[in-house]
Amino acid sequence: MEVLLRNRAALHTLPATGLYPHQWSWDSAFTAIGLRHVSPRRAQQELESLLGAQWADGRLPQIVFDRQRDEDYSPGAAFWRSEEIPGSPAVPTAGLVQPPVHARAALAVHRADEAESRRRGFLERAHPRLLAWHGYLRTRRDRGGRGLASIVHPWESGMDNSPAWDGPLSRVPDVRAGGPGVPRPDLRHADPSERPSNAEYGRYLHLAARYRDHRCDDADAGHEFVCEDPAFNALWADAELAMAEVAAALGGDRAPHEARARELTAALEPLFSPALGTYAARDVRTGELQRVATVAGLLPLLLPHLPRAAELLATLRGPRFRLGTAVMVPSHDLTAAGFDRARYWRGPSWSSTTWLLVQALRGRGAVAEARALGAQLRRSALQHGFAEYVDPIDGTPHGTRAFTWTAALALDLELDPELG
């Protein structure tokens, strides 16, 4: 709670002071999941703050900017110039999105104090915005034509620097070529060995600038990066299951959401790689699966009707991810040549993906493993000052400290009667 209070800013919570001075989309969802135990109203406000920045087309933005802190993060509001793009909200935001975990968070927050939720009309007001968000993914992001949402930037995966994006990024120009250096205010708060390289950041900025300059048009045929991410789509399917519960709570029909979740689960199947034992990202422009095993390919375990659950559990328990012996769950295959124990999303373990796999294991009936994994997360959080991410081999903390979602998810597990 000290971390959550320290990082509070108006009606939302910063991921961390210093390194992340704005509001991030899926961070706020995870934050609300922890906050609901101690202040359901504040958890509602966390989500309402983000939902209030929704675009007219239904997208929930990756970042809602604080203009007073614009020099502390790049690219900021001055880069995005969202006010110049039709359909953007009154507040400055990025044009990109992040994984759709918001319906699951809204349902959890509602259930934490249903009387307070009904008194404030929380679910009634959130419901149409969540519908519009899912509708945006369905109608504007199916670039592959197979029913899955495509991401148009690595940042949209939430796992920015994952090795899964190395192949698709290889054809993206580096914005540094013939131009100024890449602004890196993040390096004032974290060691360069733990962060994406300047070359990677240069490509990130090129993609963001192109998307901005095309007025955040999801139909831009020339956009260089278009990928189907298994984690993004699995979380969307799980969000549809949550929306079924939301609809039922409001006296509506749950069946359309349950059907959509089944459709998304089936649509994931072409992303399964038998050689990896996980689902893998697909480059929509080339049709190729990326031959990289990452934690993103394990997150479909959340889905109850998944036909590959046995294979995923075997991979999670096997040498690639070493459930039970690794510290939490590595973000990248421990046996891969490119595994990096310290660098952002290229090996370290994160509390967000670990927490999601705790829920997946519980849903599979593996409660003892879920409890043990949750205990690892809580021990690591307390031992290392709620680090952003940790070395999966020896637990060394990396990134910033007092990281909000680490605190929020540790709090959630501590107060979970089955897992705490």
List keywords for this structure.
3-stranded antiparallel sheet, 420 residues, 12 strands, mainly alpha, hydrolase, single chain
Write a structural description:
The chain has a domain of 98 residues. The longest helix is centred in the middle third of the chain and has 20 residues. The two termini are 16 Å apart. It has 420 residues and is mainly α. It is 41% helix and 6% strand. The strands form five sheets. Strands 5-6-9 form a three-stranded antiparallel β-sheet. Strands 10-11-12 form a three-stranded antiparallel β-sheet. It has a two-stranded antiparallel ribbon with strand order 1-2. Strand 1 and strand 2 form a beta hairpin. Pfam families: MGH1-like_GH.
How many β-strand stretches? 12
Helix content: 40-55%
Q: What is the distance, rounded to the nearest whole angstrom, between the alpha carbons of the first and last residues?
A: 16 Å
Average pLDDT figure? 95
Biggest β-sheet, characterized?
A: 3 strands, antiparallel
What does the overall shape look like? globular
Q: Structural class per helix/strand content? A: mainly alpha
Strand order of the largest sheet: 5-6-9
The low-pLDDT segments are none
Order of helices and strands: HEEEHHEHHHHEHHEHHEEEHEHHEEH
**How many H/I helices?**
15
